[in-house]
Every structure is written in structure tokens, then in C-alpha cells.
Amino acid sequence: MHKIDMDLVEMTMDVMKYVIDRISNTQTTINKPKKAEELKALVGETITKEGIGGEKAFNLWKEYLTKSNVPIDHPRHLAFVPASPTRAAIMFDLVTSASSIHGAYWMEGAGGIFCENEAMRWMVSLTGLPEGAFGVFTSGGTAANLSAIVAAREYWRSLDVVNENKKGLVITSIGAHSSIKAMAKVADVEILLVDTEDVMTAEALQEVIYNLTSEERKRLFAVVATGGTTNAGIIDDLYGIGSLCEREHLWFHVDAAYGGGALVADSVRHLFNGIEKADSITIDPHKWMFSPYDCGAVIYKNPELAKNAHSQEGSYLDIFKDEGAHGFNPTDYQIQLTRRVRGLPFWFSLAMHGTDRYKQAVERGIELAQIAGEMITKMDHVELVREPSLSCVLYRRVGWEPDDYTHWTYENHEKGFALVTPTKWKTGASFETVSRFCFINPDTTEDDIEQILKSMI
Ligand SMILES: *Cc1c(COP(=O)(O)O)cnc(C)c1O
């Protein structure tokens, strides 16, 4: 064998061994970041004219660099929205890379896109949207929300030429994810907030609409409800809001980036009633559907409307539209052209394990939140801020000030023991600093939760 090939085979074996070790190791500690200068001092120059060689670069990665990443799949990582990609999906992520698939057009990526669409069909079936609804995988919830907002805005503009020069207006609530506001900025859309971090009701929304000036009412084109707020797992009144949007002829977007995974869970599915009225829905498989990063999804009731907004024109692209027209072109339904078939690892894992395993794993996250809630109720030093919702638990340590929460978080992180971060919860006009759990990883144990709570004594 040629020398280069030998090196490559050895390198491949090393990489595979590393990957297998990483995904089989359940006892990793929670690392913490180092400063860029510290990392630089440890690894020296890595980009040189001659190259430092694969072995050296890989050793630097193993010895120093990977240890400066926080493993988001650690069972005691309960901050933000953690992740827990399946081993099957991770292994197939390697296959996805090795296959070099251009995932924009069917003409080039038919096999990969077919698999993505199989997984997508299952996701769409969970929503109860009518026949014809379909979606596409995006880089995440942010890109999915942007794609949906732009599709809604372009549809509104297509209804009346006078809308073409108007700045559109969208209503959402304080509980909505920051990406809604950020993406409204990208799309140059104004945002109005219903003043609640708890459930957004149809009545509260109706009142905000009622109080608009007639000029504002003409600019209003969409409402964004949340199917599982990131902070507290709260699901807005989707049925009431959906009905109101129908009456008011407004585009109804449901951001279920985090909570969407729970559509598969029988114990909470009823909380999402009304999601079938949505014009568009965001769900992140990289959150609660156990896909590796990055994998979001946007689903449309009428995909043609998204196509009108997103299909790209260019003489160099015509060829794809001709030969590829018989198939599904993911680029037509979201903001990105060249794309990884990022739904492919998710498809493989779903095909391998079956949907029941997904149901069980999501139900376990919900159950862990209930268990944590019961423990907190029984212990004297902590109390619930509100009942657990989906897999989120907000609780306070009696007598603690905001700084105490911060110190406790840093101390546990420093020890490599756990990552649990404080958040704020709005009651009335004031914000209280509280502690928060978000469960995703079904391997988190009851003992993990107990140890974390006891570390607050
Ligand atoms: C996480 C989240 C987002 C953003 O998704 P990314 O994948 O991080 O871009 C949007 N909305 C909600 C409700 C989320 O929880």
C-alpha cells in the first residue's frame, strides 16, 4: 500500500477509536472553557506551511482542546437545553460527512433527501397538520423561525400591493425565545410582546390586537406562539390562539424548537392541541429528538407559500430545477442554498430504534422533571417556583440572593460535578433569580438530581 494510504488508514482507525470511546464513556467530567491565550500557550502554532501532521494535531485535540469543551450530553448537564444524541445518529453523522452530499437539490442529493423526508413525514404526522403539510431540516430553530417569518411576510405582501412598502408587525409573548426578536430584526419586522412569561392566552392576544391603531392592525401579519418555552417549558394556548388567527386572517407560527419533541409523548400531547392549526412550526431534532448538532426543522401547512418566498433564481441553478423538478428541493423552503443533509443522522437513528424508543426517552425526561419536583417539595431548603412543565423545573433555594446561585453554579462546574445555571422568572413587574433544570438525557439518574439538590444545603 502507498505510504499516504497507510497513514490514512491509521488515522481513520485512531479517529474511530476516539469516537467509540467518546460515545461509550458515561463517566466524563464536565469540563470548563480556558482562555484563548491559555489554549494557544498549550498547543503553539497549529497552522504552518508544512503542516504539523495528523498525529500531532489529533494529540493536541485529545490532550488539550477537547478538554476545553463542555460535554452537553453529560447526565448532570441540566443547563440551557442540553442534548443527548443517540450513538446511532452520531455514527451516521460520520457517514453523512463521508458521503459528500449536496443537500440543496434532489438532482444531487436524492438518496439523502429521501431519508430526510422519511423522518420529516414522521415529524409532520406528530403535529396533526392536514394533508400536504411538509417541512425541511435547517441548521436550527433560529434558521427555522427566520424561514417561517419570511414566508409569512412574503405571503402577506403577496395579498395586497400596498403591503409591499410596509414594515410588517408580528405579535408574540415575553416567553418567546430570543431568536424570534433577533430574526424579526433580520427580516426588518416589528415585534409586539404580550406581557406574560406564563401561558399566552387567546384573550390576552385579542386584547393586544384590539388595542392596535388601525395603521398597526394593517401591518400585523403573524402571531408566534411557543410550544414549550425555553425557560420554563410552558405551552401557550395553541387552540385558542390558532382559532383567533383564523378569524383575524393572521399567519400562525408555533415555535416548538425545544418542546416539539414532546409531541410524541402521550402524557402531554393534549397540551399541544391546536398546533394542527399552525401555518408553520419549528421543531429542533437536536434538542429533544436526540439528533447531533446541528439539526432544526421548519414545517409548513402549505409548503408552496414557503417556496414562493425562498426559491432561489440564478442561471447556474436552472439545471437543477429541470432535471431535479421531479423531486423535493430542500433549498426552496428555507433560507439556505448549499446544505448538509443534516436530517440524515436523525433518520438513521429513527429507522434503527423505531419511534417507540423516542417516545420512551422523551417520557423519561418528563418523568425526571416530575421526580425532581417531588424531591424539591420534600426538602426544606428548596421550593418550587411553579409546577414542572414538560422537562423544565424552576425552583428556589430558600434565602439565596442572585450571587449565591452564581457562586453555586461556578463551584459545581469547577469541580466538574454538574452544570446547572440560574435563570430569571418574572412575577408581576419583578424578576426573581431562581435555579432551573432542563432534562433531555434519559440517562440522568434520580441520584444525580438528589446530589445536585443536596449540594445547595
Ligand atoms: C433553542 C430554541 C430556539 C433556537 O434554536 P437554535 O437551534 O438554538 O437556533 C428557538 N426557539 C425556542 C423555543 C428554543 O428553545
From TrEMBL:
Q: Which cofactor does it need?
A: pyridoxal 5'-phosphate
Q: Which GO terms describe its molecular function?
A: transaminase activity
Query: Pfam families this protein is in?
Result: Pyridoxal_deC
Print the keywords alphabetically. Answer: Aminotransferase, Decarboxylase, Lyase, Pyridoxal phosphate, Transferase
- Similarity-based family: Belongs to the group II decarboxylase family.
| Entry protein name | Aminotransferase class V-fold PLP-dependent enzyme
